[in-house]
Write a sequence for this structure.
């Protein structure tokens, strides 16, 4: 099975010492940013993902450990931050808006690939398409400044764009892979990147983003386009996939379905989390719900067996010249099996290691429905209403063997999320752009954990423990934004009224019943002032000041306080599209309910969470500095983006760990400052005469934070380096193309207690060939070599993949799919992870390779 890695992401984390973490994303005026992308990663694997909703907040369940966060939103500069999770806590990130428009630039090299005019980059597909492309993602990968990640998401400047449109109309919202992995490359005649996309609204004042618009050929419009594929083969491999589209002048209709036993999931981690928090509700101030992403969405091959069923429906239509409706429904159900052997090291003790054998069977189901209505009442007034709901059901069953003690660990989770948003954009007094947003959301999550052991658990008198938890969160927000433009100045004032209520109930049923309930309420008023100034053609600035008055109540305690947060950004245009930006922001985080809980509760079979030592009203300041550069060379079509950031977080929330004979205790605490520095370089190099391009990504992170073991401070230093080099050919009039992809990943973890130090690294080299023979035959062949070094042992794997399509009759193709064909029997991979208490090396059994043959029918 081919392993795909996300760049900029760190190592995966096992589900130990999970904590509820809240991320809040705001702009320079402290106005929450909706649909901002937050990716939490570790060891080159995406751990959590989501988009913020109208309160700019996203909650996640994350295991203790050091993570890297990538926060992005089109129209804003991407922010990279390292976070240390060892207790429930809040993180707040400030994104800087890109306030300058693109100038008219025509690429002067031959052939011309890009034409840039104001907020639109138009690509000349004839200059890059060679006929070996299958789906539209194969074309996008070749375009300067753009890329596709392993989930089919479109990236610009290293961040995911907001939407992929078809003929200007939405298509499954921001689930890009529904387009990139299902629409054939030969259906598209042009692609535009819209860097100032504001959707259907004609009224000014709305939040702008970035969208990619695919323009279909006339021969594919106003008729049904259907694609059916059926294949089966060795190692119980089977897949049925169907696409059915109709693209018409006023919208589109699409039905996509899939059933397979080859570990393919049409939705990504991002999609799963977005749907669970009903992130499709478009608003300026997002919320980040506490969502635990299931294993079935892991972007790697660490699964022994996986069966997936999926169906998705999308309908977009203009009801008239001024009104539009968009509806979608997605259902996904997955059954998986996992098997791995773990070597677990207590990193707070010298030479303390344990071995585990783990088997896991799980079922995950997701159903998401959303409806959006948009209405341009006039040229100056826009109204919209969005509603979405998502019921889910997850169930994990695990068997673990440690020495002579066998555990059975069952965990079930049911969740229901509902949210709706009303929005009005208008113009007041002919000069003031006004936007009002009202949002109401409810998230109800119920979890049940059952533990069965051959010996007593957690120093109790029970070898069986049953624990039930219920978390309910209700949010109401009213947001007002006023913007006025005078010559080269833009002034804005945002006033927000926010109400948040969190309830937590936990009870353990044994011979005695322990029932505990907690409640945290917060009401706040935010005032955000900003001034953007274009001093001359090259220099722009933005100065902001945020004030938030908060009233907080926890149990019988109450407090009221005010936060003051300045922010600043400067942008200097060097020449053409080359610019450099500097930004500074001060923000304060507030603990959430899961960070201040005051009771014992069981997290998993070996982790007991003790009452928090963090105060519910404690503010945690953070200073962030960042420097960015973005440039396009019109002579050779190259694109360069780089960013360097440094942040200092005072009184960071962390964990104190205490080791017992057969389990650990963790307690939330505040520690010394946490500091981190991050650097990212993305370089897309084109040549005027050479028939290939080079894409390079370099990412570096160094973070220094603190935890505790039995109350003794422990300094933790993490360094991560990832480097990816891609060479892509573009021979004209050639039937064969090639690709080379090299990845180097290195992570070092070091702490002063017990002198623990580990360096894990991977070398991955992929060689690929693709070709065609007239219009009948298309093929691609890939060989991947992966050298893994966990610091404990090494492992080498080789993957051979092949895909062949041959047209043998009108509308019919013969297909051959071979995946991991060098390992048709059982194979294994090595992975590592760590949290505040453990460092774990896992030898994971992955699904054996397969060979399938089948038929594809298109009409």
């Amino acid at each position: 099975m081919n392993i795909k890695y996300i760049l900029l992401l760190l190592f995966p984390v096992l589900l130990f010492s999970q904590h509820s973490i809240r991320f809040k994303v705001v702009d320079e005026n402290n106005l929450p940013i909706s649909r901002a992308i937050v990716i939490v990663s570790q060891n080159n694997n995406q751990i959590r993902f989501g988009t913020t909703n109208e309160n700019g907040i996203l909650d996640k369940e994350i295991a203790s450990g050091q993570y890297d966060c990538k926060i992005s939103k089109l129209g804003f500069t991407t922010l990279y931050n390292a976070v240390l999770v060892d207790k429930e806590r809040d993180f707040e990130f400030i994104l800087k808006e890109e306030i300058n428009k693109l100038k008219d630039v025509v690429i002067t090299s031959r052939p011309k690939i890009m034409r840039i005019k104001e907020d639109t980059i138009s690509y000349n597909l004839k200059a890059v398409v060679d006929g070996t492309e299958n789906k539209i993602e194969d074309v996008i990968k070749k375009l300067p400044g753009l890329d596709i990640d392993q989930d089919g998401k479109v990236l610009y400047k290293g961040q995911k764009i907001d939407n992929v449109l078809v003929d200007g109309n939405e298509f499954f919202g921001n689930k890009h892979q529904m387009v990139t992995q299902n629409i054939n490359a030969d259906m598209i005649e042009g692609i535009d990147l819209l860097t100032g996309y504001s959707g259907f609204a004609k009224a000014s004042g709305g939040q702008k983003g970035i969208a990619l618009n695919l323009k279909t050929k006339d021969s594919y419009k106003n008729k049904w386009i259907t694609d059916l594929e059926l294949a089966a083969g060795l190692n119980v491999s089977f897949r049925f996939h169907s696409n059915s589209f109709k693209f018409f002048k006023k919208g589109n209709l699409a039905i996509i379905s899939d059933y397979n036993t080859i570990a393919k999931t049409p939705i990504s981690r991002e999609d799963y989390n977005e749907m669970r928090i009903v992130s499709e509700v478009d608003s300026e101030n997002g919320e980040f719900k506490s969502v635990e992403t299931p294993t079935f969405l892991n972007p790697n091959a660490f699964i022994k067996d996986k069966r997936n069923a999926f169906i998705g429906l999308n309908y977009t239509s203009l009801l008239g010249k001024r009104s539009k409706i968009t509806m979608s429904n997605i259902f996904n159900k997955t059954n998986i099996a996992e098997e791995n052997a773990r070597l677990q090291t207590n990193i707070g003790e010298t030479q303390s290691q344990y071995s585990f054998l783990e088997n896991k069977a799980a079922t995950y189901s997701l159903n998401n429905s959303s409806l959006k209505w948009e209405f341009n009442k006039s040229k100056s007034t826009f109204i919209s209403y969005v509603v979405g709901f998502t019921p889910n059901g997850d169930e994990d069953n695990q068997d673990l063997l440690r020495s002579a003690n066998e555990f059975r660990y069952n965990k079930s989770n049911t969740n229901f999320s509902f949210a709706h948003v009303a929005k009005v954009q208008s113009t007041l007094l002919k000069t003031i752009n006004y936007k009002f947003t009202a949002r109401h959301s409810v998230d109800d999550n119920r979890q049940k954990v059952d533990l069965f052991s051959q010996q007593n658990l957690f120093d109790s008198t029970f070898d069986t423990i049953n624990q039930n938890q219920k978390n309910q969160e209700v949010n109401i927000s009213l947001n007002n934004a006023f913007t006025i433009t005078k010559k080269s100045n833009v002034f804005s004032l945002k006033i927000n009224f926010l109400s948040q209520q969190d309830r937590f109930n936990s009870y353990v049923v044994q011979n005695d019943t322990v029932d505990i309930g907690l409640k945290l309420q917060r009401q706040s008023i935010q005032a955000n002032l900003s001034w953007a100034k274009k001093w001359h053609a090259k220099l722009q600035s933005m100065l902001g000041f945020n004030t938030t008055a908060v009233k907080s109540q926890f149990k019988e305690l109450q407090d009221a306080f005010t936060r003051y947060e300045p922010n600043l950004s400067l942008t200097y245009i060097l020449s053409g599209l080359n610019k450099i930006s500097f930004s500074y922001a001060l923000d304060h985080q507030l603990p959430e309910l899961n960070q201040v809980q005051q009771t014992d509760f069981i997290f998993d079979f070996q982790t007991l969470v003790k009452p928090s030592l963090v105060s519910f009203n404690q503010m945690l300041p953070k200073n962030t500095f960042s420097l960015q550069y973005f440039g396009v060379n019109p002579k050779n079509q190259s694109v360069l983006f780089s960013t360097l950031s440094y942040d200092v977080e005072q009184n960071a929330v962390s964990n104190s760990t205490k080791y017992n004979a057969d389990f650990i205790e963790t307690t939330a605490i505040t520690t010394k400052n946490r500091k981190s520095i991050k650097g990212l370089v993305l370089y897309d190099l084109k040549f005027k005469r050479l028939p290939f391009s080079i894409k390079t990504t370099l990412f570096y992170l160094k973070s220094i934070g603190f935890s505790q073991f039995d109350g003794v401070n422990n300094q933790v230093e993490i360094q991560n380096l990832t480097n990816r080099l891609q060479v892509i050919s573009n021979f004209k009039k050639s039937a064969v193309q090639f690709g080379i992809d090299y990845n180097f990943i290195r992570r070092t973890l070091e702490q002063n207690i017990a002198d623990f130090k580990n360096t894990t690294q991977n070398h991955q080299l992929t060689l690929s060939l693709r070709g065609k023979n007239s219009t009948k035959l298309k093929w691609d062949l890939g060989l991947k070599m992966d050298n893994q070094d966990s610091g404990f042992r090494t492992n080498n794997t080789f993957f051979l993949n092949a895909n062949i399509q041959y047209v043998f009759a009108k509308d019919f193709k013969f297909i051959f799919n071979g995946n991991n064909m060098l390992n048709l029997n059982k194979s294994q991979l090595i992975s590592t992870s760590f949290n505040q208490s453990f460092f774990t090396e896992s030898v994971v059994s992955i699904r054996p390779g397969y060979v399938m043959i089948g038929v594809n029918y298109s009409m």
Notes: The chain has one domain: 10-100+226-858.
